[in-house]
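Re: that chain you flagged

S.,

Sorry for the slow reply, it's been a week of failed gels. I finally had a moment to sit down with the sequence you sent. For the record, here it is as I used it:
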Amino acid sequence: MGILIRLAITAVALWITTLIVPGVEVSGGSGTETALTLVVVALIFGVVNAVLKPLIKVFGCVFYLLTLGLFALVVNALLFLLTDWIAGALDLPFHVDGFWAAFWGAIVMAVVTWLISVVVPDRWEGR
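Prediction finished late last night. Pasting the structure tokens below so you have them in one place:
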């Protein structure tokens, strides 16, 4: 159940990102198509982050240390662009217009995901 909640939180954060950041867009026709696209892109984003981010942290730890963690912003933007590329390969109507849109999109995604996660816990207490 926690995975589905995380997926929903990421999809909502992605939707809010498309509303706030120019250059990050979902061009679905109907509301249902847009929602389904957001869920699939959120799944792709989650898989990309789960697989590649730990590897990048291990191999790029020197850059993280030298830049005092600011390199993480660049890595997040590049992972966001990779998500865009995979979505394009799957013919999903999701598009990111370049590095800066990905940079700001990744920042907004991180902040919104964190804010929603504070309000909606992924595990319910008292089971």
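What I noticed first: The CA atoms of residues 44 and 84 lie 9 Å apart.

Talk soon,
D.
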